[in-house]
Specification:
CATH topology of the largest domain: D-amino Acid Aminotransferase, Chain A, domain 1
CATH architecture of the largest domain: 2-Layer Sandwich
Radius of gyration: 21 Å
CATH class of the largest domain: Alpha Beta
Largest sheet: 9 strands, antiparallel
Distance between the termini: 52 Å
CATH superfamily of the largest domain: ATP-grasp fold, B domain
Number of strands: 20
Helix content: 25-40%
Structural class: alpha+beta
Number of domains: 3
Length: 397
């Protein structure tokens, strides 16, 4: 059976998750990408990599049509869900509804759709590429508000603003750096930030678990730590699932971010793919299920079991040490796999010593990731904190 996997840059989710899972399922894999050399460097020799303008669904369909017959078309990229859905549908293969993929990727459209459903109304407006942000001062904007790219990821250019002058300034800053980006300005939703991880085949949907997210100090929204949450309160889960149902989300894997304030759950964004930044690798280990294989099976048209047999007794935390200034990384710990007091520690550097980076105020400021899994949350958090305190990262301006 032939799996076509659409990708932009290589990610841990693909190279360490989906490609090995495809091999275990006995699938022949063709990676379609606009960065073929990067994928050839990290993919196994048995993985076929072809160049393709994967952002254009027409190019994807043409490339597949002139190659092997497809049995599945899949992507874990935020940016390629609609293209993969359209291509799969063209070949009559199981897929996400392209309308849903587009609806949740476009944050303004998502807000409009949820408001029309009657489940949640968030004040928001759009600033199209090239539009003068000065016009925003004439609107009754609720402050504080959040500015973010309409189709953004990884907290890129997401910022909290407190008044009209700052709003105009921040929008102009983003437009200068990224003149083609469309922005969304929306009311700030108060509450603690959580995630809900789900997996469905269009008929059966499993709630896998979630995380409690700690963010950096305002005005930015960098995810610095995620604490594993096996079970959210049932009323909260019901609210989030109702909103996902309204959006049409139900096929494949989905990573949803939401806040809870006074018992009310409100969606921040829906990422119609597996949770990233190595969290999906952690989740597979915690749940003790072949998560990546299950995801691929849904795209092959195979139904999910009524019971995944997932564990719910683990404890875990993931920490992301972040750069605090621009400069060249001159000292940093190496990769490590340790067991301390029954806690499995996995540290992976995300920047190499000698690399120079600017300060982005996004997830691109991550310099490493520490995954810790253990028998109870108190021990896990203690061991993780002790490990991080013993490490040293140095930047030279």
């Amino acid at each position: 059976m032939r799996l076509y996997l659409l990708a932009l840059n290589p990610t841990d989710s693909v190279t360490e998750g989906f490609l090995p899972a495809a091999a275990r399922l006995g699938l022949d894999v063709t990676v379609l990408t606009d960065q073929p050399e990067a994928h050839r460097r990290v993919a196994g020799s048995d993985i076929e990599v072809l160049e393709c303008d994967v952002r254009d669904f027409r190019a994807v369909i043409s490339r597949i049509s002139t190659h092997h017959t497809p049995d599945a078309v899949f992507t874990n990229s935020d940016h390629l869900q609609t293209q993969a859905a359209l291509a799969a549908d063209y070949f009559g293969l199981p897929a996400k509804d392209w309308r849903t993929a587009l609806r949740v990727k476009d944050k303004a459209q998502m807000r409009r759709h949820l408001a029309a459903s009657g489940l949640d109304t968030v004040w928001s407006t759009e600033l199209t590429a090239g539009q003068d942000p000065a016009g925003l001062t004439a609107l009754d904007v609720p402050y504080p508000c959040v500015v973010k790219p309409r189709e953004g990821v990884a907290s890129e250019d997401v910022v909290l603003v407190d008044g009209p002058e700052e709003l105009v300034l921040r929008c102009k800053e983003i437009q200068t750096r990224r003149p083609h980006v469309h922005l969304v300005i929306e009311e700030y939703l108060a509450g603690e930030l959580y995630t809900l991880e789900t997996l469905g085949d269009g008929h059966v949907r499993h709630v896998l678990s979630g995380f409690h997210t700690r963010l950096s100090a305002p005005p930015y929204f960098i995810e610095e730590r995620l604490v594993y949450t096996p079970h959210h309160p049932e009323p909260v889960v019901e609210q989030v699932l109702a909103q996902l149902d309204a959006l049409g989300v139900g096929f494949g894997v989905c990573h949803t971010e939401f806040v809870v304030h006074e018992g009310r759950a409100r969606i921040i964004e829906v990422n119609y793919r597996a949770i990233g930044d190595q969290m999906d690798l952690l989740l597979t280990r915690l749940l003790d299920i072949p998560l990546f294989e299950h995801v691929l099976r849904t795209h092959l048209g195979q139904p999910l079991p009524a019971d995944l047999g997932a564990r719910a007794d683990g404890a875990a935390v993931v920490d992301y040490p972040c750069a605090q200034s621009a400069g060249t990384l001159t000292a940093a710990p190496e990769a490590a796999d340790l067991t301390v007091d029954g806690v499995e520690l996995t540290y992976r550097p995300l920047r190499e010593v000698g690399e120079r980076h600017e300060l982005y105020h996004t997830n691109r400021d991550y310099i490493g990731v520490l995954r810790a899994i253990g028998p109870d949350q108190e021990t896990v958090e203690r061991v993780a904190a002790e490990y991080l305190a013993a490490q040293r990262w140095e930047f030279t301006p």
